[in-house]
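Narrative progress, year one. The postdoctoral researcher (J.K.) led the effort to move from monomer predictions toward full complexes, under supervision of the PI. The following entry was the first complex the group processed end to end, covering 586 residues in total.
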Amino acid sequence: MEINKDLVAASSTPIVLAILIERDSYGYAILERVRELSGGRMEWTDGMLYPVLHRLERLGHVEARWEVSKSGRRRKYYRITSQGQAQLAEDRRQWEAVDATLRGIWQALFPAAPVSSAASVATAKGILRDGG
Amino acid sequence: MAAKGDAAMLDDQIDRWRSYLHRRQAIHSVDVAELEDHLREQIAVLTDAGLVSDEAFLIAIKRIGDLDALSREFAREHSDRLWKQLVMPSSGESGKTVRTDAIVAFSLAVAAAIALKVPALFGKDLHSDGGFYARNAGLFVLPLLTGYFVWKRRLNPTILPWLAAAFAAAAIFANAYPFAPKGHTEILSALHLPIALWLVVGVAYAGERWNQVSGRMDFIRSSGEVLIYYILIALGGVLLTAFTALVFKSIGINASPYLESWQVPCGAIGAVIIASWLVEAKQSVIENMAPVLTRLFTPLFAAMLILFLCTVLWTGRGFGIERAELIGFDLLLVAVLGLLLYSISARDPHLPPGTFDMVQVLLVVSALLTNAVALWAIAARITEFGFSPNRVAALGENVILMVNLVWSVVLYARFLRRQGTFAALEKWQTDYLPVYAMWAAFVVVVFPLAFGGI
């Protein structure tokens, strides 16, 4: 699924910060986690993550350090700061408000739709699990 | 054997990719290293999944994305790097654009020189109506300079009426009041109007990026470089003028009437546009002179101020209260602020606090102490002398600069103790820009009324 560029840009900050709350991480692993969490529905252009990380670093939301990875390469790790955690809490509040608003209007417009789509996802997952 | 060949080939490919990336000014080598780590990990995952390294390389490159778009994103985030290439024609553009740009700049410079001479047709003489020319000096050139940036940045036309209104208002306030010839408020108006108008130039310079810290920071950078270019051009102009006078004198012709009413004033006014254009076009030639000078002079200024404070404490000497001294301390604060601003503008915000940051704080603190001691001494006696326009203007500026520097020290100290970010300091400085312009506009608009044009 192609997600609108503005939407990707707006959601990238909370997604990256939330992933860094789980554990310190680096670019490639963060992208992997995004793919995993979105079930492949969110595809970022890989390179674009780095300017986002650098912006978060400049704003003091994350801190970076270089480490040597198992493969012997130098790798830049990012850690969320307390300021970044506060930012994430604020972002979460705002996204929940947006989400609740959208849910409300979806519900009013297409009463059956969200249920059926949720159900079909559930069935699909069930089929996959049964198949495996 | 095949595997070894594969690995060598892959390294070769990555080398080429890396050097291609290095050519982009906005992406520094640390970022290239970070991206390379990403690329190699992606390739490793893909080859583990059974792809040959060639295919893995191609897919990994594709996933990183279009390098032009990526480099633009990096440039947007790291505007200090962008600064070097913002206005340079990108490599795709032809020399034709550069030429057009030069032609426009020189035409505008000539237009400014003509604008300066137009009032002469209406009997305004450069010598006898010096006050008129001083009050309007900015108005001869800054609207044209603003026009240059409007053209260069292809600004949205909706902003044009606002820019025009600002200059129209400036023209009214500069000329409507009945100033006493060579009065204090006339001189103050002439000194402050260009400061207020420079902000209008800044709005055109930064365009849509005026609302962003990086846009205003670029304007600060550019202003410093324009000043340096202007001084260099002025030095050249002095030489040219001296030789003009000399060679004409050798054949018995006195060139000074021509020099005084044409060459010097027209050159001085046109040079503003030429200096701005040079900063736009030649950034990578003499780039970032201002930060180099700040590096050099910050420790020297700090040492001088500390020596001065020690001398005051040691000898207990009092301060004079002449106007010149108050203005002198204002200028000192301006110099310190300039040193602070230009080292901020050139500093990589990601670097941890270092020795130079300590020196910087030391400089600002010692300047503030010096200023406080001086102000205290002066304020204690100012009531005896009354509030003249000059003293009020000088005091107002002193307060504005002090507020800026005090808060800067607080933010800097937080940064040094790692409780705050350098970005906060940048934001404070760029947010403060309109304050100077507002105070300058206040002096231009209110002082002639409040002090009755004296």
